[in-house]
Amino acid sequence: MVTENTTSERDRIVEALTGEWSAIRELVSTFDENDWDAQTPCPGWSSRDIIAHIIGTESMLAGEQAPASRGDTPSFVRNEIGELNQAWIDHFRGAEAAELVEQFDQITRSRDETLRAMADEDFHAESWTPEGKGTYAKFMRIRIFDCWMHEQDLRDAVSAPGGMDSPAATIAIEEMLGKFGYIVGKRASAPEGSTLTLRLTGAAGRTVSVAVEGRARYIEDGPAEPTVTLTMPAGVFARLYGGRVAPAEVTNDIQIDGDGELAQRVLSELAVTM
User: Fold this and answer.
1) Is 210 in contact with 216 (CB distance < 8 Å)?
2) What confidence score (pLDDT) does residue 76 get?
3) CA dihedral in degrees (222, 226, 228, 234; nearest 10)?
4) CATH 3.30.1050.10 occupies which residues in the chain?
5) pLDDT at position 71
Protein backbone atom coordinates (compact mmCIF):
# COMPACT_ATOMS: atom_id res chain seq x y z
CA MET A 1 0.00 0.00 0.00
CA VAL A 2 1.41 3.39 -1.02
CA THR A 3 1.12 6.11 1.61
CA GLU A 4 2.41 9.64 1.96
CA ASN A 5 5.02 8.34 4.42
CA THR A 6 6.38 5.71 2.02
CA THR A 7 6.56 8.29 -0.75
CA SER A 8 8.41 10.80 1.41
CA GLU A 9 10.84 8.11 2.59
CA ARG A 10 11.45 7.08 -1.00
CA ASP A 11 12.17 10.73 -1.92
CA ARG A 12 14.51 11.06 1.07
CA ILE A 13 16.47 7.95 0.06
CA VAL A 14 16.71 8.84 -3.63
CA GLU A 15 17.78 12.43 -2.94
CA ALA A 16 20.41 11.28 -0.44
CA LEU A 17 21.85 8.65 -2.79
CA THR A 18 21.96 10.85 -5.88
CA GLY A 19 23.34 13.68 -3.76
CA GLU A 20 26.08 11.37 -2.52
CA TRP A 21 27.06 10.49 -6.09
CA SER A 22 27.30 14.22 -6.82
CA ALA A 23 29.48 14.76 -3.74
CA ILE A 24 31.86 12.00 -4.83
CA ARG A 25 31.95 13.39 -8.36
CA GLU A 26 32.77 16.87 -7.07
CA LEU A 27 35.50 15.48 -4.82
CA VAL A 28 37.31 13.49 -7.52
CA SER A 29 37.13 16.45 -9.90
CA THR A 30 39.90 17.97 -7.75
CA PHE A 31 42.18 14.89 -7.94
CA ASP A 32 45.55 14.87 -9.65
CA GLU A 33 47.29 11.66 -10.77
CA ASN A 34 48.84 11.10 -7.34
CA ASP A 35 45.41 11.42 -5.70
CA TRP A 36 43.93 8.85 -8.06
CA ASP A 37 46.68 6.38 -7.15
CA ALA A 38 46.61 7.13 -3.42
CA GLN A 39 45.94 4.19 -1.11
CA THR A 40 42.66 4.51 0.79
CA PRO A 41 41.84 3.06 4.24
CA CYS A 42 39.81 0.39 2.43
CA PRO A 43 42.23 -2.59 2.34
CA GLY A 44 43.90 -3.04 -1.03
CA TRP A 45 42.00 -0.26 -2.77
CA SER A 46 43.30 2.98 -4.25
CA SER A 47 41.11 5.98 -5.03
CA ARG A 48 40.58 4.73 -8.58
CA ASP A 49 39.58 1.31 -7.20
CA ILE A 50 36.90 2.95 -5.06
CA ILE A 51 35.37 4.61 -8.12
CA ALA A 52 35.61 1.37 -10.11
CA HIS A 53 33.78 -0.42 -7.27
CA ILE A 54 30.92 2.09 -7.27
CA ILE A 55 30.64 1.89 -11.06
CA GLY A 56 30.56 -1.89 -10.87
CA THR A 57 27.90 -2.12 -8.18
CA GLU A 58 25.60 0.37 -9.86
CA SER A 59 26.16 -1.37 -13.19
CA MET A 60 25.01 -4.67 -11.70
CA LEU A 61 21.95 -2.96 -10.25
CA ALA A 62 21.28 -1.67 -13.77
CA GLY A 63 21.28 -5.28 -15.01
CA GLU A 64 24.83 -5.63 -16.34
CA GLN A 65 26.66 -8.93 -15.93
CA ALA A 66 29.68 -8.87 -13.63
CA PRO A 67 32.99 -9.44 -15.47
CA ALA A 68 34.83 -12.70 -15.01
CA SER A 69 37.53 -12.86 -12.36
CA ARG A 70 41.05 -12.25 -13.65
CA GLY A 71 43.11 -14.55 -11.51
CA ASP A 72 43.95 -15.21 -7.88
CA THR A 73 41.71 -13.64 -5.27
CA PRO A 74 43.57 -11.11 -3.05
CA SER A 75 43.89 -11.99 0.63
CA PHE A 76 41.67 -9.08 1.68
CA VAL A 77 38.68 -10.54 -0.23
CA ARG A 78 36.67 -12.59 2.26
CA ASN A 79 33.34 -13.50 0.68
CA GLU A 80 31.34 -13.79 -2.53
CA ILE A 81 30.33 -10.13 -2.56
CA GLY A 82 33.99 -9.22 -2.14
CA GLU A 83 34.85 -11.41 -5.13
CA LEU A 84 32.29 -9.59 -7.28
CA ASN A 85 33.65 -6.25 -6.13
CA GLN A 86 37.19 -7.28 -6.97
CA ALA A 87 36.15 -8.54 -10.41
CA TRP A 88 34.89 -5.05 -11.30
CA ILE A 89 38.04 -3.42 -9.95
CA ASP A 90 40.21 -5.78 -11.99
CA HIS A 91 38.00 -5.05 -15.02
CA PHE A 92 38.79 -1.33 -14.80
CA ARG A 93 42.46 -1.83 -13.87
CA GLY A 94 44.59 0.36 -16.11
CA ALA A 95 41.74 2.67 -17.11
CA GLU A 96 42.62 6.35 -17.23
CA ALA A 97 41.04 8.60 -14.63
CA ALA A 98 39.08 10.41 -17.35
CA GLU A 99 37.56 7.11 -18.49
CA LEU A 100 36.56 6.21 -14.94
CA VAL A 101 34.92 9.59 -14.47
CA GLU A 102 33.02 9.20 -17.73
CA GLN A 103 31.82 5.73 -16.71
CA PHE A 104 30.86 7.03 -13.27
CA ASP A 105 28.86 9.88 -14.82
CA GLN A 106 27.07 7.56 -17.22
CA ILE A 107 26.02 4.91 -14.71
CA THR A 108 25.01 7.32 -11.94
CA ARG A 109 22.97 9.37 -14.42
CA SER A 110 21.24 6.21 -15.61
CA ARG A 111 20.60 4.97 -12.08
CA ASP A 112 19.27 8.41 -11.07
CA GLU A 113 16.73 8.25 -13.91
CA THR A 114 15.75 4.68 -13.01
CA LEU A 115 15.22 5.43 -9.33
CA ARG A 116 13.12 8.52 -10.01
CA ALA A 117 10.97 6.61 -12.52
CA MET A 118 10.23 3.67 -10.19
CA ALA A 119 6.73 3.24 -8.85
CA ASP A 120 6.47 3.47 -5.06
CA GLU A 121 5.25 -0.14 -4.97
CA ASP A 122 8.42 -1.31 -6.70
CA PHE A 123 10.71 0.84 -4.58
CA HIS A 124 9.29 -0.63 -1.37
CA ALA A 125 8.87 -4.18 -2.70
CA GLU A 126 10.62 -7.18 -1.15
CA SER A 127 14.18 -7.57 -2.42
CA TRP A 128 17.49 -9.26 -1.75
CA THR A 129 19.95 -6.99 0.05
CA PRO A 130 23.57 -7.49 1.15
CA GLU A 131 22.15 -8.08 4.63
CA GLY A 132 19.65 -10.72 3.48
CA LYS A 133 15.96 -10.45 2.76
CA GLY A 134 14.59 -6.91 2.90
CA THR A 135 13.14 -4.34 0.55
CA TYR A 136 14.56 -2.42 -2.37
CA ALA A 137 14.31 0.73 -0.24
CA LYS A 138 16.48 -0.93 2.40
CA PHE A 139 18.96 -1.94 -0.30
CA MET A 140 19.22 1.69 -1.40
CA ARG A 141 19.82 2.80 2.18
CA ILE A 142 22.70 0.32 2.27
CA ARG A 143 23.92 1.81 -1.03
CA ILE A 144 23.91 5.23 0.63
CA PHE A 145 25.95 3.87 3.53
CA ASP A 146 28.42 2.18 1.18
CA CYS A 147 28.89 5.19 -1.09
CA TRP A 148 29.21 7.60 1.84
CA MET A 149 31.78 5.36 3.55
CA HIS A 150 33.75 5.31 0.32
CA GLU A 151 33.55 9.09 0.09
CA GLN A 152 35.21 9.13 3.51
CA ASP A 153 37.83 6.66 2.22
CA LEU A 154 38.58 9.00 -0.67
CA ARG A 155 38.77 12.00 1.64
CA ASP A 156 41.13 10.19 4.00
CA ALA A 157 43.35 9.16 1.08
CA VAL A 158 43.89 12.78 0.02
CA SER A 159 43.55 14.47 3.44
CA ALA A 160 40.35 16.33 2.49
CA PRO A 161 37.94 15.99 5.45
CA GLY A 162 34.28 16.76 4.90
CA GLY A 163 30.98 15.22 3.88
CA MET A 164 29.67 14.96 7.43
CA ASP A 165 26.67 17.29 7.10
CA SER A 166 24.89 15.72 4.12
CA PRO A 167 21.60 13.78 3.96
CA ALA A 168 23.70 10.74 2.99
CA ALA A 169 25.78 11.09 6.15
CA THR A 170 22.60 11.15 8.25
CA ILE A 171 21.24 7.96 6.68
CA ALA A 172 24.65 6.24 6.83
CA ILE A 173 24.86 6.94 10.57
CA GLU A 174 21.30 5.67 11.00
CA GLU A 175 22.27 2.43 9.26
CA MET A 176 25.28 1.96 11.50
CA LEU A 177 23.37 2.73 14.68
CA GLY A 178 20.78 0.17 13.63
CA LYS A 179 23.40 -2.51 14.40
CA PHE A 180 24.56 -0.99 17.68
CA GLY A 181 22.25 -3.03 19.92
CA TYR A 182 23.52 -6.23 18.28
CA ILE A 183 27.11 -5.08 18.78
CA VAL A 184 26.56 -4.34 22.47
CA GLY A 185 24.40 -7.31 23.41
CA LYS A 186 25.60 -10.09 21.11
CA ARG A 187 29.13 -9.34 19.99
CA ALA A 188 30.40 -7.59 23.14
CA SER A 189 28.31 -9.79 25.49
CA ALA A 190 27.28 -6.89 27.71
CA PRO A 191 25.94 -8.33 30.98
CA GLU A 192 22.26 -8.41 31.90
CA GLY A 193 21.10 -5.10 33.36
CA SER A 194 23.87 -3.02 31.83
CA THR A 195 23.22 0.17 29.89
CA LEU A 196 25.38 1.92 27.34
CA THR A 197 25.09 5.42 25.92
CA LEU A 198 26.84 6.35 22.69
CA ARG A 199 27.35 10.06 22.00
CA LEU A 200 28.46 10.93 18.50
CA THR A 201 29.64 14.49 18.10
CA GLY A 202 29.92 16.77 15.09
CA ALA A 203 27.60 17.59 12.20
CA ALA A 204 26.31 14.01 11.86
CA GLY A 205 26.24 13.41 15.61
CA ARG A 206 23.44 12.01 17.73
CA THR A 207 23.03 10.13 21.01
CA VAL A 208 21.55 6.67 21.51
CA SER A 209 21.24 4.41 24.54
CA VAL A 210 20.96 0.63 24.78
CA ALA A 211 19.80 -1.48 27.73
CA VAL A 212 20.47 -5.21 28.04
CA GLU A 213 17.31 -6.88 29.29
CA GLY A 214 17.35 -10.42 27.98
CA ARG A 215 18.55 -8.88 24.74
CA ALA A 216 19.90 -5.44 23.97
CA ARG A 217 17.23 -2.90 23.08
CA TYR A 218 17.17 0.82 22.43
CA ILE A 219 15.69 3.03 25.10
CA GLU A 220 14.10 6.40 24.43
CA ASP A 221 15.48 8.25 27.44
CA GLY A 222 19.10 7.59 28.27
CA PRO A 223 19.80 6.48 31.86
CA ALA A 224 21.10 9.07 34.28
CA GLU A 225 24.11 6.89 35.06
CA PRO A 226 24.82 4.42 32.24
CA THR A 227 27.15 1.51 32.84
CA VAL A 228 29.27 2.98 30.04
CA THR A 229 29.19 6.19 28.05
CA LEU A 230 31.25 6.36 24.87
CA THR A 231 31.78 9.77 23.29
CA MET A 232 33.50 10.22 19.94
CA PRO A 233 33.17 12.13 16.63
CA ALA A 234 30.70 10.54 14.24
CA GLY A 235 33.49 10.14 11.68
CA VAL A 236 35.60 8.13 14.13
CA PHE A 237 32.64 5.86 14.85
CA ALA A 238 32.14 5.33 11.11
CA ARG A 239 35.78 4.40 10.59
CA LEU A 240 35.68 1.95 13.49
CA TYR A 241 32.44 0.44 12.17
CA GLY A 242 33.95 0.10 8.70
CA GLY A 243 37.14 -1.51 10.00
CA ARG A 244 39.21 1.36 8.64
CA VAL A 245 40.97 1.95 11.97
CA ALA A 246 41.55 -0.05 15.14
CA PRO A 247 40.44 1.36 18.52
CA ALA A 248 44.08 1.76 19.59
CA GLU A 249 44.66 4.12 16.65
CA VAL A 250 41.95 6.59 17.76
CA THR A 251 42.26 6.41 21.54
CA ASN A 252 42.70 10.17 21.82
CA ASP A 253 39.41 10.74 20.00
CA ILE A 254 37.33 8.55 22.33
CA GLN A 255 36.12 9.45 25.81
CA ILE A 256 35.11 6.55 28.07
CA ASP A 257 33.05 7.08 31.21
CA GLY A 258 32.11 4.12 33.37
CA ASP A 259 33.02 0.46 32.96
CA GLY A 260 36.28 0.60 31.02
CA GLU A 261 36.48 -3.15 30.42
CA LEU A 262 33.00 -3.26 28.84
CA ALA A 263 33.82 -0.15 26.83
CA GLN A 264 36.89 -1.82 25.36
CA ARG A 265 34.89 -4.94 24.47
CA VAL A 266 32.33 -2.82 22.63
CA LEU A 267 35.04 -0.85 20.81
CA SER A 268 36.81 -4.04 19.77
CA GLU A 269 33.56 -5.38 18.26
CA LEU A 270 32.56 -2.25 16.34
CA ALA A 271 34.08 -3.38 13.04
CA VAL A 272 30.99 -4.70 11.25
CA THR A 273 32.01 -4.12 7.63
CA MET A 274 35.51 -4.51 6.22
Assistant:
1) yes
2) 65
3) 20
4) 178-268
5) 64
Instruction: Render pLDDT for 218-263 as a digit per residue (tens, 0 to 9).
Output: 998 889 999 999 999 999 999 999 999 999 999 999 999 999 999 9
Q: Does the domain at residues 178-268 carry the CATH identifier 3.30.1050.10?
A: yes
Q: How far apart are CA 41 and CA 239, in angstroms?
A: 9
pLDDT at residue 86, as a whole number: 85
d(CA 185, CA 191): 8
Question: In CATH, what number does 4-175 get?
Answer: 1.20.120.450
The 3-state DSSP class for residue 114 equals: helix
Residues 190, 206: Cα–Cα separation, whole Å: 22
Work out the average pLDDT over 95-117: 97
Burial 126-161 (b: 16+ CB within 10 A, else e): eeebeeeeeebbbbbbbbbbbbbbbbbbbbbbbeee
80 falls in which pLDDT band (50, 70, 90)? low
Please list the residue range(s) of the chain that carry CATH number 1.20.120.450.
4-175
